[in-house]
Structures are given as structure tokens and as C-alpha cells.
Design brief:
Elements: E1 4-6, E2 17-19, H1 26-40, H2 71-79, H3 83-89, H4 94-112, H5 119-127, E3 132-134, H6 135-142, E4 155-159, H7 164-173, E5 177-183, H8 184-187, E6 195-203, E7 206-213, E8 232-234, E9 238-241, H9 244-247, E10 251-253, E11 259-260, E12 264-265, H10 267-277, E13 282-284, E14 309-310, E15 317-320, E16 343-345, E17 348-349, E18 362-363, E19 366-368
Length: 369
């Protein structure tokens, strides 16, 4: 386990952070270099005009020298980090924690404000039925490098079975009208959807799709998505990226159940794939397709088609959108419903090469709870 050490001294700003095997993690070097430069250039006429400790939202931070910077600068640093680096940096001190929370909540509320009058109410209503935001909206909020110039065309809200109409009633109060209500068989041409109904709520050019799960878990439909890069979700006050090593690099592994013969994309899949390729995402069936050595030794990592996965496992990147005690294991509290676990494996053909799995080479994907 990597160990974090935070220096209380600000006389040597470059030493404010020490990380085991630091040279193997370049984003931290970038943070340190930027911090060192900003602290050295700090002056009344310089780029940093410190706000008073009494007025600062991080006034009580005494573990590092970041409070000497204008909070706008700390906020900017957080805003250019990917989600994985954010989660590492926010653990170093209250300054970083506050900046990361401010950035993530600004992105979340910024998107919601285009659809509803009060984003806080949207998130409160989301919390009551243990619902989540997923799909392109969650991806746009969480993948800072992939945001570019594109905007999600709608917001997808997933609810447990029997809870969708509660959210629809809230949307109607926000001026939305129900344009269409479909069952899974009407929406898709196969039985792999994992959801029961979809309600399309429309207000002008805005659309919110409320998708009702076939089970008591709102997360049940997510492993049925056509690619891993959209297997992310936001609760009212937390987030999860199921395949961070791929998603945060703009990569997606296609789901075999969305392919004919577990290999060939259907026209519907090709259409949505083209949409995301235009947004600079790239797709393959197996992780080794991006590697020079197709016979690389099996790592049984997050993209392995035969590894059993679940939301909250060691491969997921999860974080809170509210201040938490970082010394505690808060994984369970970050799930919309910690009494139910959604498990899946991608399935399809094994990667080949030096596969460590002793099972047959061909599997169908599965989802359970």
C-alpha cells in the first residue's frame, strides 16, 4: 500500500508531497511542479493574491502551504486533473479535498442546471429512490480529458423497479412532459437490456430518460451497456467509474452481448460507436488489441472477459461528492444501495495468449445480484 506523507512546512514547497514510487506516476509530478512554481511566484503583484485566512474556505488547513494560494488557483489545478488523479490528490490535505469537491460538484450542478431550476432538488429526488445518473451525462462529468466540445444530448436516470414514476412526477413539476413510455422489448431488439421501461420526458429541446430496472437495484442495467466507457454512475453525492484504466484514456471495451456471434457489431451499435468515435473514444473487443504484444501474459485485470466484477470492487474508481473522513473505508456508503450487489462478467471469447483462467475459452456475459 502506497504511503502518503504531508509536510507541514511551507518553506520548502516542493516537499509538500511525497509518494512511494513517485516517478511511476507522472500526474503527481505535474501537480508538484505547478505547485512549486506557483508558491515561488507568490507575491502581492504576482499570479497569486492570497485571501485572508479568515475568509478562505480552507482557512483551517495547517498541513500544507496551499492555503497561501488564491483558491481560484487551487480550483484550476483540480479542474485539469483526471478523476483518478483527483482521488489521489484529495487525500493529501483539506485544501485539495475542498478544491476537488468544488470542481466535481460544479460540473454536476452545471449540467443539471441546463435541465432543472434547482440542481440540489434534482439530486435530493435522485437520492430518495436510490436512483443514479448514468450514460453520456455521467461520462461527460467524470471524464475531463474526454469532455472536449461535445455535450450529452440527454440525461439518463436509472431507478429501481417500481420507483420510476416518482422521478417522472418530479420532472413534470419542472415543466417536462411525458412524450413516450416504452417497454424494453419496444426500445431494443433483444432481451439483454436489463431494464423494464423507459419514460422519455421532454421540455423543449431537453430530454430526460427515466429507465426502470428489472430488479430492486438501479445499477442492474448498467453492465448491459454496449461498451465499458459508459459504465459509470453518479448518485446524489458520489460517483463510480467501473473501468477507469480504459475510460480515462478514452478507450472502451465492447460488450459481447451487444454483438452478433459475440464478435460483430450490429447496426445500432455501429451508429452509437461512430458517435463516440467522433468524440475521440476508441473501441476494441479485448484489452490486448491496444498492445503491441498480443500474447502478453494474462493480468486478470479489470478488462478481462472472464473476471467477475461488481460495483465497488478493487478495479472501480469511486469517490464522494461531499466531505468525508478519508481514514474510513467508505466504499459501501458510495453505492446507491449498499444492501444489494450487482455482479457481472463481460463474457465472450477469452483473450488468448497466456490466459490464467482454466475455464472454457468461450463464455456468455452474465449479470447477477
Amino acid at each position: 500500500m502506497a504511503q502518503w506523507l504531508v509536510s507541514a512546512s511551507v518553506s520548502h514547497p516542493v516537499s509538500f508531497l511525497h509518494y512511494t514510487n513517485l516517478r511511476s506516476y507522472s500526474p503527481i509530478f505535474n501537480i508538484m511542479s505547478l505547485m512549486n512554481t506557483l508558491l515561488k511566484q507568490r507575491s502581492p503583484q504576482g499570479i497569486s493574491t492570497p485571501i485572508s485566512r479568515d475568509a478562505s474556505p480552507i482557512a483551517h488547513c495547517t498541513t500544507c502551504g496551499l492555503y497561501r494560494l488564491n483558491f481560484d488557483i487551487i480550483y484550476y489545478i483540480a479542474s485539469i486533473l483526471d478523476a483518478s488523479t483527483m482521488q489521489i490528490w484529495r487525500k493529501t490535505c483539506p485544501c485539495a479535498e475542498h478544491a476537488v469537491l468544488a470542481v466535481l460538484n460544479a460540473r454536476y450542478d452545471g449540467l443539471l442546471s441546463k435541465y432543472v431550476s434547482k440542481p440540489a432538488e434534482f439530486r435530493a429526488v435522485l437520492h430518495m429512490p436510490k436512483a443514479v445518473v448514468s450514460g453520456s451525462a455521467a461520462l461527460h462529468i467524470l471524464d475531463v480529458d474526454g469532455r472536449g466540445a461535445w455535450e450529452p444530448k440527454d440525461i439518463d436516470v436509472y431507478t429501481p423497479i417500481g420507483m420510476s414514476m416518482r422521478f417522472v412526477k418530479y420532472l413534470e413539476g419542472e415543466g417536462f412532459r411525458v412524450a413516450q413510455c416504452q417497454s424494453s422489448s419496444e426500445s431494443y431488439q433483444d432481451d439483454y437490456a436489463g431494464f423494464k421501461t423507459v419514460v422519455h420526458a421532454v421540455k423543449g429541446t431537453l430530454t430526460v430518460d427515466v429507465i426502470q430496472s428489472t430488479t430492486l437495484s438501479a445499477l442492474h442495467p448498467l453492465p448491459y451497456f454496449w461498451s465499458t466507457h459508459v459504465m459509470n454512475f453518479l448518485t446524489a453525492d458520489s460517483f463510480c467509474i467501473a473501468y477507469p484504466a480504459f475510460t480515462l484514456q478514452g478507450l472502451g471495451l465492447t460488450n459481447p452481448i451487444a454483438l452478433d456471434d459475440r464478435r460483430y457489431p450490429r447496426q445500432r451499435t455501429l451508429d452509437v460507436m461512430a458517435k463516440y468515435k467522433a468524440r475521440s473514444y476508441d473501441f476494441r473487443l479485448h484489452p490486448h488489441a491496444w498492445e503491441a504484444d498480443v500474447h502478453a501474459k494474462c493480468r486478470q485485470a479489470e478488462g478481462c472477459p472472464l473476471s467477475i466484477r461488481w460495483f465497488g470492487d478493487r478495479f472501480c474508481l469511486m469517490g464522494s461528492l461531499i466531505a468525508v473522513d478519508m481514514t474510513l473505508d467508505g466504499t459501501a456508503s458510495l453505492l446507491p444501495d449498499n444492501t444489494r450487489t450487482v455482479r457481472w462478467w463481460r463474457g465472450g471469447d477469452a483473450c488468448g495468449g497466456q490466459c490464467l483462467h482454466t475455464k472454457p475459452s468461450r463464455f456468455h456475459g452474465a449479470v447477477g445480484k
